[in-house]
Design brief:
- By secondary structure, the protein is mainly beta.
- It has a single domain (2-274), classed as Jelly Rolls.
- The protein has helices at residues 9-12, 17-24; strands at residues 2-4, 25-26, 34-40, 46-51, 57-58, 74-80, 85-89, 92-96, 101-104, 111-115, 124-130, 138-140, 146-150, 159-165, 176-182, 188-189, 194-195, 199-206, 214-220, 223-229, 233-237, 242-247, 252-259, 268-269.
- The strands form five sheets. A seven-stranded mixed sheet has the order 1-3-4-11-6-9-12, with no helix packed on it. Strands 2-21-18-23-15-14-13 form a seven-stranded antiparallel sheet. It has a four-stranded antiparallel sheet with strand order 5-10-7-8, with no helix packed on it.
- The radius of gyration is 18 Å and the shape is globular.
Length: 276
């Protein structure tokens, strides 16, 4: 399991392109027939991906966790961005179509990832955070998720937000998770941008067309940088950093948070003229 260590904002100011990508960009999460995970030192969030082939992939345990099994002291959220997937939770099977979400609570001992059709493999994006108590496993389909539309075509940011794991949705200890879909003709996400010192965040970009990219913006509001990102790549956003992006096409992204609270709306908004 790769580790990503926390970065002080004063150190970040001196980073060149290579260091920024090494410390914040998460690549190669998906390989057919494998499950890959990254342990971050931001609220102990683990970011992972499973792309099952002909065989089920069992959620492994890792030495760094110092636990009997992966979810002994953790909770986990899964959103599928590929073909239909089947997730087995202590013997109970759940089918996830594209953009469905499954929450798995602390204490689950065995978890397996499978594709319903190996010619159209599931692409299962995973976030896991430490948990203090058990909440029940729950499947939430995209059509049943709380949603609302924001932005406008005139400002190139017309989008729909879907909330899955949050205070008024699937219950969790500290994990918050959902996704945003940009309409055709819109490319900007999270505008105006914001920070939230009370929790970290991870963005995972998907449905980015071939040969197109997303310019993800991060950093202190008056000391911003960008990372050029491609399809199925994730980026870690420290609590002190903004997180926003503009693409060369419309796309989708999954947002996930862990930290102090479960309030989706807990953010410190910034005006565009405040950015540097």
């Amino acid at each position: 399991m790769k580790q990503v260590y926390a970065v002080h904002p004063n150190d970040y100011k001196t980073y060149n392109t290579e260091l920024i990508r090494d410390n914040f960009l998460l690549q190669s999460l998906f390989e057919k027939g494998k499950a890959n995970f990254v342990y971050t030192h931001y609220d102990r969030m683990i970011v992972g991906g499973a792309m099952p082939g002909d065989k089920e992939i069992e959620l492994p345990n890792f030495e760094i966790l110092k636990s009997g099994y992966f979810l002994e002291r953790r909770e986990l959220g899964i959103i599928n961005v590929g073909g239909d997937g089947v997730v087995t939770v202590d013997g109970e099977k759940f089918t996830l179509s594209k953009l469905d979400c499954l929450y798995v609570g602390k204490g689950t001992q065995k978890l397996g990832f499978a594709s319903a059709n190996t010619s159209q493999p599931a692409i299962l994006y995973v976030l896991s955070a430490p948990a203090h108590t058990n909440y029940p496993t729950r499947l939430l389909q995209k059509k049943d998720a709380e949603s609302n539309s924001l932005g406008a075509l005139e400002t190139s940011n017309q989008r729909t937000i879907y909330r899955y794991i949050h205070k008024n949705g699937i219950q969790s200890c500290q994990l918050v998770m959902g996704l945003t879909i940009l309409d055709k003709g819109s490319v900007w996400n999270t505008i105006p941008p914001h920070t939230h010192d009370r929790r970290m965040e991870v963005y995972f970009y998907f449905d980015v067309p071939d040969n197109q990219v997303v310019f993800h913006y991060m950093g202190l509001p008056r000391e911003t940088r960008h990372i050029i990102m491609k399809n199925y790549e994730a980026v870690v956003s420290p609590p002190w950093s903004i997180h926003a992006g503009g693409g060369t096409s419309n796309y989708g992204f999954i947002w996930g948070m862990a930290g102090e609270n479960l309030e989706y709306s807990d953010m410190d908004a910034l005006q565009l003229n405040e950015l540097r």
